[in-house]
Amino acid sequence: MPVLTTDAESETGIPKSLSNEPPSETMEEIEHTCPQPRLTLTAPAPFADETSCQCQAPHEKLTIAQARLGTPVDRPVRVYADGIFDLFHSGHARALMQAKTLFPNSYLLVGVCSDDLTHKFKGFTVMNEAERYEALRHCRYVDEVIRDAPWTLTPEFLEKHKIDFVAHDDIPYSSAGSDDVYKHIKEAGMFVPTQRTEGISTSDIITRIVRDYDVYARRNLQRGYTAKELNVSFINEKKYRFQNQVDKMKEKVKNVEERSKEFVNRVEEKSHDLIQKWEEKSREFIGNFLELFGPDGAWKQMFQERSSRMLQALSPKQSPTFFVLSLRRVLGQSHKKSIHT
């Protein structure tokens, strides 16, 4: 959509094209040529000085309601979020996700303060500025990264980057002699609040590291870092290395105990199996014994059969005729003996 250019400024110092008053000076119509949001994530977000907005058309003042309805249709709504982003974590990513999704068609610019500025107003950082810049470039919600961002936003900065709205949590941020560095942004109607993520922050992460300093120092010594690299004294180095040796011994003892438990469990399982098999064999043996030697067992029947056979062999049953013939033979022999005598 073609718009009308203007060079006037409001009384508050915010460019009039970003204030509530409509342009009062008309010039030629110029088309918007603002960069569009990233559609693919195959490359990191560019730096602002590599792809700065060269659009010559002024950015008319938008209300939050208009931006949420998708106005304007010929360019994205340019949303700015800034911070230190040290030890980039999920809380940072969630804040940027909220800023990116504030409006249907948003172009998210993220300003990262330099080391000098941060150390001056806030304190020392774990990551240097180059590392923090790169961390932001690889966040999927970021369309453009502004290096060496100002601590307090000026009208010139807002105009240079064609910023429509500034996104940040609503808690007043007191710094650099101000009760709230975003106060003038809120008064200009350009501030859109985001929500902080509870339970995660750079300060929380650093607190965990400081609290468990000995653990991390010992871990890094084990991984090959020198005492000098860790800024550890000679005595502490020896102490940490001794503790590491003690932990190794404890781990070995623990492994031996676990293996012993496994061995005992296996022996118990095998013993249980052997007892069950022995009981089964015992019952089988007793059953077979009773089957052979019980009151009605096969051995008794076999013994009775063999006994009867032996009796028959010792005293066989004779027929009557054989008995008579035998008797006659015995009587005849005795008669002959009597005659001779």
Automatic annotation (TrEMBL):
EC number(s) recorded for this UniProt protein: 2.7.7.15
Enzyme class: transferase
Keyword Lipid metabolism: yes
Gene3D superfamilies: HUPs
Pathway: Phospholipid metabolism; phosphatidylcholine biosynthesis; phosphatidylcholine from phosphocholine: step 1/2; Lipid metabolism
Record key words, sorted: Coiled coil, Lipid biosynthesis, Lipid metabolism, Nucleotidyltransferase, Phospholipid biosynthesis, Phospholipid metabolism, Transferase
UniProt catalytic activity: phosphocholine + CTP + H(+) = CDP-choline + diphosphate
Coiled-coil ranges per UniProt: 239-266
Alphabetical list of InterPro entries matching this protein: CCT (IPR041723), Cyt_trans-like (IPR004821), Pcy1-like (IPR045049), Rossmann-like_a/b/a_fold (IPR014729)
Superkingdom as given in the UniProt entry: Eukaryota
Pfam families named in the record: CTP_transf_like
GO molecular function terms noted in the UniProt entry: choline-phosphate cytidylyltransferase activity; phosphatidylcholine binding
UniProt region (Disordered), positions on chain: 1-27
All copies of domain Cytidyltransferase-like, residue ranges: 80-208
Family according to the record: Belongs to the cytidylyltransferase family.
Function: Catalyzes the key rate-limiting step in the CDP-choline pathway for phosphatidylcholine biosynthesis.
Protein name: choline-phosphate cytidylyltransferase
Annotated organism of origin: Leptonychotes weddellii
